[in-house]
Design brief:
four-stranded mixed sheet, alpha+beta, 172 residues, 7 strands, 2 domains
Length: 172
């Protein structure tokens, strides 16, 4: 591992720090998206809400970083993962493909899909291997959020569509 300094850009989000807190923006992502679609030269439209409009009572007091982030996502920082795998899906080498995607506060933050390194003997084994990758990702997200000061308040959920793989995971 090496220290890359303060976080500036992560998952399409620009991060800026000031004495008032941490502020996140997707300006660069939006500009890149507009450039990619050929809409960079379009004129902005007026919004129907007045500038600096207070959306709820009590917004005059200085919020904490966690409150600012929770207002941004609109809910708590619940972390949820979903995994799936096929069995022997590759015709050439009979290896399975597994994948996962994870949500933080209802927002998709990571996803992954890859052919497994070994040939699974059953669909259950392929699903279990996929769950193992998903659990590693969820643990990484939980540690990252904790380091940023946003420790998840609820247990992390992992969803899998294979009852046998779930039963194996629950059996110590």
């Amino acid at each position: 591992m090496k220290d890359l300094g303060d976080l500036k850009y992560f998952l399409g989000i620009e991060v800026a720090r000031s004495v008032k807190g941490i502020f996140m923006s997707q300006r660069k992502y939006v500009l890149d998206l507009l450039a990619e679609t050929g809409l960079l030269g379009c004129k902005p439209a007026d919004t129907l809400i007045e500038m600096n409009h207070k959306l709820c009572e009590g917004m005059d007091q200085e919020p904490t970083n966690k409150e600012q982030y929770q207002r941004l996502v609109g809910r708590d920082l619940e972390v949820v993962g979903y995994t799936d795998a096929d069995w022997a899906g590759s015709i050439t080498d009979r290896r399975s493909t597994s994948g996962y995607f994870t949500f933080v506060g209802g927002n998709l933050v990571t996803w992954w899909s890859k052919k497994q390194n070994v040939v699974s003997r059953s669909g259950v084994e392929a699903e279990y291997r996929g769950m193992a990758h998903g659990v590693c990702e969820l643990q990484w997200i939980r540690r990252l959020l904790t380091e940023l000061g946003f420790k998840p308040e609820k247990p992390i959920e992992l969803h899998c569509d294979n009852k046998s793989a779930i039963d194996i995971a629950h059996n110590p």
